[in-house]
């Protein structure tokens, strides 16, 4: 049987699949050629990440397809229900990248409270001529310890983020329509651990109480944060989105950044991805990364081996 890993797969995933008797093809096929490639090469399994879309047209055109796999959590680039209605298995790896995404959230938080994203732009330009001026400009840092982190969506990634926040000594509050409460276990290097319970509260109360807000939700039909929500937040709030583009109104966000209502934002995903708006890219109050939440070697190894395990159990 053949597997097309069109958006790539880790070496460990390839080895696990090959050991299970599968041929793995990592040729990058253009979106419009996927269906033809699948049929011409008798592909049984298509694996994607966020780049390749597997919509109804591909599903209809590829009757021999047995599994569609998503290396990661969100499956908004796959017509999941339609694929299942055609007897195709749809799999993903919801737990494999949680820690990697959570660490990126904190990379953006630390960058924002200490102005690292902006100082790293300006030090090469002015560090030798305006050192004292830059020192003054970036002198009003903020500690995360003791502050309140509001988590919107307390699923696996939200929980991993909560653990890191608790480890830093932050207060954690959360809003989630589907999870009324969750036990968060923070484990330490020596085998000790502590467990605390987070009870979901209203989205409005999270927005009002949080010093920093991080989003961990799937793609939405509308905005979770727009001008109305920004208005009820604390002055000087920090906002991080490492979930999905389109859940924050970027025009309203830029306006709030310019007015000082929002101190900084950290964005890994964008409304118009993969071509973010220039007003976002050039704003010195936004810490930017190009959708790399799950892009660590450890996460990709876990994703590859987990996909391999699911494929082997389904088809062997």
How would you describe what is shown here?
This protein is α/β, with parallel strands linked by helices and 316 residues long. 38% of the residues lie in helices and 19% in strands. The protein has 13 helices and 13 strands. The protein has helices at 11-19, 34-40, 56-61, 80-85, 98-113, 116-126, 131-137, 156-167, 203-209, 227-232, 250-259, 278-281, 297-315, and strands spanning 2-5, 23-25, 45-48, 67-70, 89-92, 148-152, 171-175, 181-187, 193-199, 212-215, 237-241, 262-267, 286-288. Strands 7-6-10-11-12-13 form a six-stranded parallel sheet, with helices on both faces. It has a five-stranded parallel sheet with strand order 2-1-3-4-5. β12, α12 (278-281) and β13 form a beta-alpha-beta unit. α1 (11-19) runs parallel beside α13 and α5 packs across α8. It starts with a strand and ends with a helix. The mean pLDDT is 96. Keywords: NAD, Oxidoreductase. InterPro entries: D-iso_2-hydroxyacid_DH_PdxB, D-isomer_2_OHA_DH_cat_dom, D-isomer_DH_NAD-bd, NAD(P)-bd_dom_sf. Pfam families: 2-Hacid_dh (PF00389), 2-Hacid_dh_C (PF02826). Residues 107-293 form the D-isomer specific 2-hydroxyacid dehydrogenase NAD-binding domain. This is D-2-hydroxyacid dehydrogenase.
